[in-house]
TrEMBL record:
This is Histone-lysine N-methyltransferase SETMAR. Residues 10-44 are annotated as: Disordered. Residues 10-25 have a biased composition (Basic and acidic residues). InterPro entries: WH-like_DNA-bd_sf. The lineage of its organism: Eukaryota, Metazoa, Ecdysozoa, Arthropoda, Hexapoda. It comes from the Eukaryota. It comes from Harpegnathos saltator (Jerdon's jumping ant).
């Protein structure tokens, strides 16, 4: 609200949403990850990361 007030006060009455960056594209590895989980849903993130040659942080996203 404060930001809008500042914009209106300065003469900017545009209420349209500003363009935002798009959502990141889904990884091509997602179907592979799903298949691995379908085969064994007890796998840990570390095991999936190793199987997909990714980091655990990438898997958790």
């Amino acid at each position: 609200c404060e930001d809008w007030f500042k914009r209106f006060r300065s003469g900017d009455f545009d209420t349209d949403d500003k363009k935002r960056s798009e959502r990141p594209k889904t990884s091509r590895r997602t179907p592979i990850c799903k298949r691995l989980l379908d085969e064994d849903d007890t796998q840990t993130q570390d095991q999936l990361a190793e199987a997909l040659n990714m980091t655990r942080q990438d898997i958790s996203k």
